[in-house]
Amino acid sequence: MIPKLIIHNSISLDGSTTGFEANLDVHYKLLSGYQPDAIIVGSNTARTGTQFFCEIIPPEEELDFKKPEIQPDDPRAYWLIADSRGILEGLMHVFRRSEYSKDVIVLVSEKTPEGYINYLKERNYDFIRTGADRVNIRHALEVANERYGFELVVSDSGGVLNSILLEHGLVEEISLIITPEIAGRNGTNLFRTLEKSGTRLELLKNQIVEKQYVHLVYQVLKE
């Protein structure tokens, strides 16, 4: 079974994920309200996000090689990071140390470098290996449901991963926080790599947050 999947993003008025200052407090408050079992993120988004956790990447310590002890009542979500190319080697401890995640589960493919797989094994990271070249997201989500019991996963990622999720019909809802800014020509479209057109949506919720942000939630209608 595939977990319910929600795309959650903060965007500018003209549909960009960059070129404006998102309100991270609002973004993560609304995201945490879903109480997801896991948050899925692409490797490029994760690498860019390291700047929010630390100005300089700290060296690894002994504890970074150990799987954290998770309490049964821990409300935090796991992070599912898709990284078939292994670009996060040397950075994974930044995410494991985050106060916002229980631990990290890495999604890799058959083409993922063995050196990166060994890096994950040496540090006791769980990983799901599926897909010949790139990660087979559908199968990875099925495994996450079977292995960890994940029932709700929220995508907090950029346009590439979100486009893949939509392209493969995996998304049930889209949650958008509209920021009152216009990014213009330097912006990056939310679904910039989505090839298919005509995805139909039904508005489920519209809410004004902190008097200036609009939170829209849509159901993705099945074809």
What does this structure look like?
The protein has 223 residues and is of the alpha/beta class. It folds into two domains: 1-37 and 161-223, Dihydrofolate Reductase, subunit A (3-Layer(aba) Sandwich), CATH 3.40.430; 42-53 and 77-150, 3-Layer(aba) Sandwich (Dihydrofolate Reductase, subunit A). 25% of the residues lie in helices and 27% in strands. It has six helices and nine strands, in the order E-H-E-H-E-H-E-H-E-H-E-H-E-E-E. Strand 3, helix 3 (92-96) and strand 4 form a beta-alpha-beta unit. The protein is globular, with a radius of gyration of 17 Å. One of its GO terms (molecular function) is 5-amino-6-(5-phosphoribosylamino)uracil reductase activity. One of its GO terms (biological process) is riboflavin biosynthetic process. Keywords: NADP, Oxidoreductase. InterPro entries: DHFR-like_dom_sf, RibDG_C, Riboflavin_Biosynth_HTPR.
